[in-house]
Amino acid sequence: MGVAEAAELVQDLWGGRLMPQSERVITVEGGVCGRVKVELDISLKKKWAEDLAAQALGDLVPVEIVTAPLAQSQMVRADDLVRALRAAGALGTQAKLAYGFGVHLNPELPGMVAAGTDDAGRGRCVGALVSVASAYGLLEDWLRQSDPLDMARRVLPFVAPWPPALVDALAAGAGKAATEDVAAFARLYAHHAPTRNHGLDLLPALEHLAALALTDVPPEHLKGGRPTFHYRLPEARLDTENWSIAYEWNRWCLIETVGATPELLAELAEGWQTHRRTLLPRRAQWCEQVEACLNRADIVGRMSSPPVAGLAGNPQQTRG
Fold it and tell me: 97 falls in which pLDDT band (50, 70, 90)?
């Protein structure tokens, strides 16, 4: 599906007017979901290089649909769009071997709306960020094993796992002081993961909160700060009948739920440290341990549709 066809589909579904920006970028303005950008997902420094790459790669370059921030009550519209794209013949990650298409969710940082920008509110926001980051690090192996990624996405560098050393630091409590010194946490993260290309990319959030602490991050990986997580792990399985945005959103909410459950987070952190001290730590064994912890906490069912609420008390939005 091309950019123009996809933009017209968005307009048919959500209303608005088509505003071409270039041959590869069209925005849909004034629809029920606000401004929607439809573009060929290729970004090089020179237009001639983009033209050459687009011609050479053909349909390996995905068409990206970027929504304005959505309230949770609007999330069902995302799955309306998925169904419309599927019916129109759009292809997803698993349609061809070399497709590595993904869905990026940008959930708002917990507490940002309710707490405002005062120091106490900022501290709560940063503390919640660190808790969610710790939960993701401890759950990542299980997330990847419980629903394995397509081969193309495993091979491509865009959703690399977090380095175990970063998870070690989080499990040992290295991020707990971040409410007093978010810059120290930003430096810790940048030291271990100085690239956007991870299943969970914290650089936009940390650039928003402590940009000066990210001086060691290559400039091309700093695209501007925003008060959101950047969750890149989900695949765009448009051609899989039972796949939905709701499913991917609920997997994210499971991460947030673990982050908001101190006892469970502490149990996983202690288990991780014990696991890492074994002579030959095996990923499968750790995944079994995570599964057992989640079952005891009775939260695995939160991955099912329809979408569940996010972190308690957080009027979250997601940026498409």
Answer: confident
Mean pLDDT of 9-14: 97
Tell me which residue of 200, 222, 220 sits closest to 212, measured CA to CA: 222
Look up residue 35 and give its two tokens. Answer: 């401004």
pLDDT, tens digit (0-9, with 9 covering 90-100), for 222-231: 989 999 999 9
290 CB-near residues (< 8 Å, 6+ apart): 138, 139, 141, 142, 268, 271
